[in-house]
Amino acid sequence: MSSPTQTFGFLFIWFSYQVNAANFRQSSPLIVEENSDVEITCSHDDSSLIIMLWYQHKRDTNSMTLIGYGYENSQSYEGEFEKEYKLTRKNIVEGALKILKTNPSHSAVYFCAASTQ
Q1: Rounded to an integer, what distance in angstroms lies between the CA atom of residue 41 and that of residue 26?
Q2: Does 48 map to a domain?
Q3: In a domain, 91, yes or no
Q4: Total number of domains constituting the chain
Q5: pLDDT(81) > 80
Q6: Which are the contacts of 65, defined by CB distance < 8 A and separation ≥ 6?
Q7: Which of 9-13, 51-55, 67-71 has the lowest mean pLDDT?
Q8: Which CATH number covers residue 65?
Q9: Is 74 a member of any domain?
Q10: pLDDT of amino acid 27
Q11: Dist CA 60 CA 38 (whole Å)
């Protein structure tokens, strides 16, 4: 019995460009008591990144959920998040996510990110 022969072709394209990376600093992990307000801070070192975004990753899920995003003076929330979370910006490179009256449903890993647009 003969096995089928398979032929694979590879296309290699080289793009040369410079990548600039921002350095982020976020609050340390927290374990909190129920019904407390918790603030998670985030800062970065790139003033061209004018939008700060906050994500939630809950256990047993393969995706992150966008909580909201904002500029220095205005914040936008996704869905019902505005009822339990508050986004703030101290300036263009510093912001915070506040979880209001924590409960077990808030258990998650929270991430901040930043973008130029």
Answers
A1: 6
A2: yes
A3: yes
A4: 1
A5: yes
A6: 55, 56, 57, 58, 78
A7: 9-13
A8: 2.60.40.10
A9: yes
A10: 82
A11: 23
